[in-house]
Amino acid sequence: MFDVSIPRALAALFVVVGLVTGAEAGHEIPYYPSFYPQEIALGVADAAAAPRLLAKNAIHAYVGALTTPNGTPPRAWVESLRGFVVLTFNPASRAFSAARERCAAVPRLAPALARTKGRYLAYPYPVTPWHDDYLQHADLVEAAKARAAVAAPGPVLKLRVGKSVTAPAASPAWRAADGEWDATLEEISLGTLLRDAATRFNGWLGPPWLKEGWFHAHLLSARAVTDGATRSAIEETLARRVRGDYANAAERVNLERRLVSLVTRGCERIPIAYALRREAVNDDYSEGVENIGYDAQAGLGSGVFFRTVKLKDFPWNGWLRVATATRPAAAWNPIAGFSDEAGALLWSVLGDAAVLPEPYDSGWLPNRARAVEVSGPVEVPRDALAFEPMSGAPRPVPPGLVAQQRVVYRVSLSKFHDQTKMSVADVIYPYVFAYRWAAKDRQVERATELQRDWLAAVRMVKVDTEIRDFGDLQVFLDVPVIEVYLRHAAEPAEAPAIAPPWSPVPWQLLVLMEEAVARGLAAFSEDDARRRGVAWLDLARDRKLVDALGRIAESFERRAYVPESLRGFVTVEQARQRWAALRRFRREHGHWLMTSGPYRLQKWSADSTVLAVFRDLSYPNVVGSFDRYALPLRAWVTGVERRGDRLELQVDAQTLTKFERSYKIVREPMRPRPAGEKVRDPVEARWTVVGAGDEVVATGRTPELEGGRLIVDLEGTLPPGAYRVLLAVAINGNSMNPEVKVIPYRVAE
Amino acid sequence: MAVEVNRRSFLSSLGVSVGAALATAGGAVPVVGVAHAQDKPKGNIPDKPYRIGHMTFFTGPAAVLGEPMFKGQQLAADEINAAGGLLGKRKIELLKADENAGTDANVKELRRLKLSENIDFFCGITSSGNTPALGPVAEELKLLTIFVDGCTDFLFDKAVPNPHYIFRITNQQSADGVTCALGIAQTWPKAKRVAHIHPDYSYGRNAFDHVKIVMKKLMPPSEVVSEGWPKLGTTDFASHITKAIAAKPDLIVSSVWGGDYVAMYKQALRYGMFQKAKFASTIAFGVAPHAIGKDHPEGVLAGVHSNYHFTYPGGDKWPLNKTFVEKYHAKFNEYPNFQAEGGYMATYMLKTAIEKANKIGGGWPDDEAIIALLEGMMMAGPGGYVYIRPDNHQGYKDAVTGFSKNVGDYPFPVLDPDRIITIPIRNITAPPGWPKGDPTSTYTWIDKTWPVVKA
Q1: What's the rounded Cα separation, in Å, for the pair A78 and A295?
Q2: Is the peptide bond before B439 cis (omega within 30 degrees of 0)?
Q3: What is the CATH topology of the domain spanning A83-275?
Q4: How far is B360 from chain A (nearest CA, A)?
Q5: Whole-number Å distance between alpha carbons of B217 and B443
Q6: Which of B:305-324 have CB within 8 Å of A?
Q7: Structural domain range at position B449
Q8: Is the reported ipTM for this assembly greater than 0.90?
Q9: Deepest of A19, A255, A309, A692, by most Cβ within 10 A of its Cβ?
Q10: pLDDT, tens digit, for every residue of A138-184?
Q11: Does CATH place domain A633-747 in 2.60.40?
Q12: Which CATH number fits the domain that encloses residue B277?
């Protein structure tokens, strides 16, 4: 039971107001909450049919790789990392039982891969240019490429070629396995690689290093490592990296490089190429789309696409039509549903996560929870709440508890689709839920493992009122300030994604789902549903369950039910109103999939889903909020001049000029930023210094200085010796496919 | 006893005309452009850059209106700089600020621009929510300012009733509703049953009030048979469209704008709304021209915020517009909207005032001299003559509206060049000295002074 130590002041946190008041003004209202389109229709189309649909303007984009006649590329497309081509050796193969033989076999396959007509880019290292940490591995990539370029004679490889990979032409180096086999060649898509490693739980996405190359390397190869000592070293290195057990950024990078080295040096499972995904968009002058954002690794199948895409025929609004290759087969529930690609895409619009992956980088963008301070270690205040491991019940923390890190969030509340206002209870309850259900559902256990391992306590500080004053329109937003205390210290860029206080669905919907699962009507996850022989919980498409939930909700409404863990957060009257509104929503819309996101599930069939905009003025992200992620620009280091201990960089940068419904991107030497001009994409130098022993001795980022100059200042950073400086530049955080410049650098005695 | 006035003769007395062309600018009126270079400046002119702070929407939905304003000023500044700068010496330096930051932040930014960046002149502003907040601050900072838009009557009616440092050059908001209503009276005088669809906030209410008061005077038999007030952010206009159609109107009037207007007209097409009634808008074509689709119905009264459309004056009839449109298109690969014309015009009015002041006093003129010459200035620009009234610092130019038409020259509809309606602005705004009124001075002036006409 929740005791009285919860401050009464919390009561003040429950109110969320989205007031709009009038004043004298004109027509120019810059406040249209939501993404651009007023309606998003997600359909299904075969890859071969997609070009025709695009040509007929029947769809605006196709999420997934196209099949085009004669390999003709679509007129407009985006490119992202699709996956790796991996060679996995058979532990039983006698010819390749030694690491030396295995590693030597890789170069012999390269000529065969080169004949796959550009489907794959031969690349013998798991950190690719499509990973943000590529710069920190660029010297190792070059070394691996050099090794792969020298093919030594060796035994012929008996190769099994997986269905997922386009078979390379047979060569003297290998022949198709007939019975016995030495190795398997297969393409591992990022989706497959991350299926069990990515967190998609209600409004939480993760893990924080989701897009890092070293993490992908570990997922790809660690399990194949056979040597016990190496396996131990891998796990120890990984643990140090993810728990922040390092002194500085250089040490962190060395851990990541060591991890990659450990998982690949035995060549049990080794990437030999990577593949890009090319996805089409319709750029017709009138009926197409523009302002396209996408993710370096997820492509159009990412939240940023829908948050940026704009129909050319509308300054805002419009009916967006997007097709995917597959039907959404996974159940629609926010806990362990939406687990297939089509479902994840749907949830990325409907669910509105706390933070979103940086599309062209590896950090996290604030979406509904903004981390405004990351600090620590600190003693956890006594009025913070910890959650009991089994029940999830919130309890005051013991005295003297020290957290390694404190993340202070400002949480943007808004209205749910049933017009009720969000409260602190909604963003706290997911913590309760995670602890309570981890022991009962393996999928929940896995998805919340990191949060539960890291979370020490949560403290509600206050509720601020933010006023967005647009003259005619004044929007009052209540913004709770919540401190999250962590047991370990993460990178400041990663910490916001660990356990943000957020839920896109109301507490009573979580409670309703819990009750359905507790009564044996359904299970959250597919595995648990199969194990228990019940339905996979679907809040919209399972009519029988939808009706059954109605009866449960009715009984909860009669009792004004408040779960034990929320007593003190929610009054009886508030609970009654919430339950009544939820039931009313279901009556009006025929489903329970209600969120506080800017789109509401309107209708669905086997082949299509329609989401209608929900323009609630208390929704914090307005049309255009993510525009800076549309049309990523690139920059290049064109020259480096050493001046004492400083490197002064000459840079070419792309500039974007928009006109009418089109645009032009031009590469030109970076000019000084005009004085006072605030609207310009920032350019940043990223650098890593590698010592003679291939160890990283310094790494950092340097923002643009006054006058458009980029200077890497190494004064006092390096002891005497010979180094290489790896340099790249990013514009507006775009680290995709950078050109890395390597500069020899010597510090005299 | 009231004198009976005939509608046609009253419209004629207001100067409402269709397809009119402007007379070529006379020699006494300054014109935009640097071709007519001034005499050699008198006295010593410093070569220090002249810093202009320009604030408009560069992000968010209003950027479709606001960003062209900056481009217009940039075009003018580039032209002036290419000829040596203001008075041949002072190059214009533009400092951008994003109006999308919100009113409070904009006020702070204005202070920063003046106190930290030492701007000489402030320009821009799209939102009428911002001019009433920024106007008093500019006065307090003694910062010479020309607001390009932010057209609320409230600015000079109430917020800054006695301006000294601030000016504004686009027509004020009340002109929108009045122009639209006069266009209706001119074109569809027999319309009796009128349905309205307006956004449910001040602009919609302002448009409704001013359309209604003019129709009360000029189309007295007309009646409002339906009112639709879509909330801000509405995307489904079906209920408002069907409600309007169900009232069997002769005419539907709307001030829905921008992306909302596009959504509304596309939905209205599905309901055949444009076949069932005449349609008039205050601002349908007020956004950047390319924002309207080719499927837009033809023949509707498509307002341009009563200010400017790049196709008028067309052809060679008014070289200032032809040149401006050509130069703007060459530089930005798009056509200017009324904000672009406003930004361009504001810069040249400033330049002209500076040159005149130099002629009088020599050297670089102080702001008081520039203000004195801006007051009462009449200047020919791309959209016609702009006159700055000395008493309230409000710029006036003849109001423009017209009818939508697809022509082969553009990938979007434009105003039908043969049916442009122009109205002398002095005839549709409250005269100097008229008491401040509610909801606007223009409203009370029309209510109290315009006759009710005989059909």
Answers
A1: 9
A2: yes
A3: Dipeptide-binding Protein; domain 3 (3.10.105)
A4: 33
A5: 12
A6: 305
A7: 174-306+399-454
A8: no
A9: A309
A10: 999 999 999 988 888 888 889 998 877 777 777 777 788 778 899 99
A11: yes
A12: 3.40.50.2300
